[in-house]
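Worked example 4.2. Below are the chains of a multi-component assembly; read each line carefully before continuing.
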Amino acid sequence: MEQVPVILNINGREECLTIPPHKTLLEVLRNDLNLTGAKNGCEDGSCGTCTVLLDGSPVRSCLLLAVEVQGREITTIEGLSDGEKMHPVQQAFIDYGAVQCGYCSPGMILTAKAIVESAPSLTEAEVRKAIAGNLCRCTGYTKIVEAVLAVSSQKQATS
Amino acid sequence: MILPKFQYVQPTTLKEACSFLDQCDGEAAILAGGTDLMIGLRRRLRKPAYVVGLKNLQGLDYILKDDAGALHIGALASLTSVKKSALIAQEYPALAEAVELVAVPPIRHVATVGGSLSLDTRCIYYNQSEFWRKARPDCLKLGGDVCHVVEKGRRCLAVYQGDLAPILVAMGAQVKIVSAEAERTIPLAQFFTGNGERPNILQPNELLAEVILPKRPGRTANAYEKLRVREGMDFPLAGVAVSLTVNGSGEIARATLVLSAVGAAPVEVAEAATIIVGKRTSDDLLEAVAQTMFEKAHPAGNLVMDPQYRRSMVRVLTKRAIRKSLQAVGGN
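Applying the procedure described above to all two chains together yields the following structure tokens:
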């Protein structure tokens, strides 16, 4: 099987790999790079557990080929914390009880980060619309929405 | 589930892409946003020898207005870029609203206008994994000789479920199709075949390159209403798009109504439009238009909702779309 060299920019690091072209970004993240935050859920782009940020925007890593995203900035959940210090969105998810089993959390947190950073302020309706692509079977979304609104307000207050 | 193996090529210009498609002799699949093809590959609905990846093809994602006031949208423009475009918000706000009805934001960030228009037709018996489909003989769309929707059916009933096409057809859009040797521009309405097995007229060596919208006439508004199960994500189970021009006396000067997601192509229903042209709308007239659209809709039991309900909702969507357009244009 033909293998191709790829250079991926993941969480600010350059990763050089040789892979067959039919490998998805999700497979490379989990199997080649041991970045198992992104999950395999529905395999058709509808659940959001595979969500990563591509140049800052949430996308489905299960619907992208690794070869396609060279030269782009990829952020996974592992790239959010700063050493021991959690990202404000991660901290808020813990403080507000927005994590139960945690399976949706990586994708959910990345999507939340993207929306918080792209809008000076957010309404509940806007948050719900933004996370519509991330399914959660445990929490019923209430605490997740509260956490995101809290981060957004906090950001507004300190800006 | 890993994807089937293929050779990957990544053209950087439109010319290069067309040249590849020519050489691949029908064995290539076009990977634009990937939100449809990747699933099709995973399910082994498609097993192309080559995948032509367009994510690094420059210069096909523009949204521009020409000197005549017509809008040109490159086929690789992402749905999010259409939603955010100041030009589209100004010239065709209903298009931005329609785009926001597609799936969810992470899909829209990579999905393209061209991909939406050339979306393959769908059916609950077709869009399934290889494992699921192995329990049944291949259907017509897979190249077999049975239909699982209608016993002894000879015609594929797969449904076109793209959300951009209905309103673009209603607004009089054209599409530019290119190949290595030629290019042609046709009305979008003629892009669709109405054939569940081969939904559009694209040849294997052709690429949809651009959508062209005429300058929006004065006193004209458009609307698209979509029926789906959830408030996000889902494909339409019925759709109605309307374009209305109102004259100074508040009468409908021109109307186009498009019925979608109940058959293999979005279709313009001229009989529905003639009911209101030249008149001021009234509840009775809207009922008559809605009834005509209902009679033209023949959904089958091949999507997730009961077809009778989908058909009944065509009436509701028609009235909603017309009222929404009238409100936007400041009519009665």
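Take a moment to check your reading of the output against the notes. Residues 89 and 151 of chain A are 6 Å apart (CA to CA). DSSP finds five helices and five strands in chain A.
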